From TrEMBL:
Source species taxonomy: Bacteria, Bacillati, Actinomycetota, Actinomycetes, Kitasatosporales
PROSITE patterns: PROKAR_LIPOPROTEIN
InterPro entries reported for this sequence: CBM5/12, Glyco_hydro_19, Glyco_hydro_19_cat, Lysozyme-like_dom_sf
Domain Chitin-binding type-3: 36-80
Signal sequence bounds: 1-30
GO cellular component terms attached to this protein's record: extracellular region
Native organism: Streptomyces naganishii JCM 4654
Name recorded for this polypeptide: Chitinase
Disulfide cysteine pairs (residue numbers): 169-177, 265-297
Cross-referenced PANTHER family: CHITINASE 12 (PTHR22595:SF79), CHITINASE-RELATED (PTHR22595)
Keyword field contains Signal: yes
GO molecular function: carbohydrate binding; chitinase activity
Keyword list, A-Z: Disulfide bond, Plant defense, Signal
Length: 297
């Protein structure tokens, strides 16, 4: 069994069973994002208030609310266009548009918001932002394809098999398991698990995930950030990070090896590998780019 996580295909749990979420179109505005006041959690906002979130992007209150997170509470907040876009026609600056994202994940859980994903991009600006337009789109497709496999199409948020929950605490670590023996089960788009991974991801992101691992299942942007943390910084059982695999054109197969190669690669589980490859090929087609070579591991 992988020390990183148990495959979400076997161990994930649907939270809420919500229908796919389609966000309203962003409002038009020529104002600078920096001109709006910073969003403050717990502060009361009225309909029409505009704030700057922690990712530097602006949001407008669609309904009065007591300071809900704009990237989660999409009933109360909408993205508000300002000068933080990249000028590529997509206000988020991401190479995957919201329409393409919804096409990739037609049955996704509403927890996995597009705005949560784009809010997380600031943590790793090199992700889907390095190399040619083709390479950037290939990397985005590769990340989302692996995420799709791990979460059943962005349906599953946490592990299904609760009997596993107590297994993910390594008490030999000096910081122990302050949130409890059973608190470090798999969560999020790449099913982050184990106390030492929550500690490492939290330290990298500046978030206390060791003390509050539940943030990964309660805050969409945090969940996406943990997925991007693994993608951009961890090689797992592979020899390179998934980000480096795509940017250096080692091929999609190397991203599989870095994520779950000890259980799937070298003929161990060809069906699981094929599932990831199928998703990657489908997503590159949606983005209008070639998948490249070396698709298998």
């Amino acid at each position: 069994m992988s020390r990183r996580h148990v495959s979400a295909a076997l161990t994930a749990l649907l939270i809420g069973g919500a229908a796919p979420l389609v966000l309203p179109a962003a409002h038009a505005s020529a104002a600078s994002c920096s001109s709006y006041p910073d969003w403050v959690a717990g502060k009361s906002y009225r309909t029409g208030d505009i704030v700057r979130y922690t990712d530097g992007r602006a949001y407008v209150a669609e309904h009065d609310n007591p300071g809900y997170d704009p990237t989660i509470s999409t009933w109360f907040w909408d993205p508000y266009s300002c000068d933080s876009g990249s000028g590529n026609g997509n206000p988020s600056g991401f190479v995957v548009s919201e329409a393409q994202f919804n096409q990739m994940f037609p049955n996704r859980n509403s927890f996995y918001t597009y705005s949560g994903l784009t809010a997380a991009l600031s943590a790793y600006p090199g992700f889907a932002g390095t190399g040619s337009d083709t390479v950037r789109k290939q990397e985005a497709a590769a990340f989302l394809a692996n995420v799709s496999h791990e979460t059943g199409g962005l349906v599953y948020v946490v592990e299904q098999n609760t009997a596993n929950y107590s297994h993910y605490c390594d008490w030999s670590r000096p910081y122990g398991c302050p949130a409890g023996q059973s608190a470090y089960y798999g969560r999020g788009p790449i099913q982050l698990s184990w106390n030492f991974n929550y500690k490492a991801a939290g330290d990298a992101l500046g978030i206390d995930l060791l003390g509050n691992p539940w943030l990964v299942q309660n805050d969409s942007a945090v969940a996406w950030k943990t997925g991007l943390w693994y993608w951009n910084t961890q090689s797992g059982p592979g020899s390179m990070t998934p980000h480096d695999a795509m940017v250096n054109q080692a091929g999609f197969g190397q991203t599989i090896r870095s994520i779950n190669g000890s259980l799937e690669c070298d003929g161990r589980n060809p069906a699981q590998v094929q599932s990831r490859v199928d998703a990657y090929q489908r997503f590159t087609q949606i983005l209008g780019v070639s998948p490249g070579g070396n698709l298998y591991c």
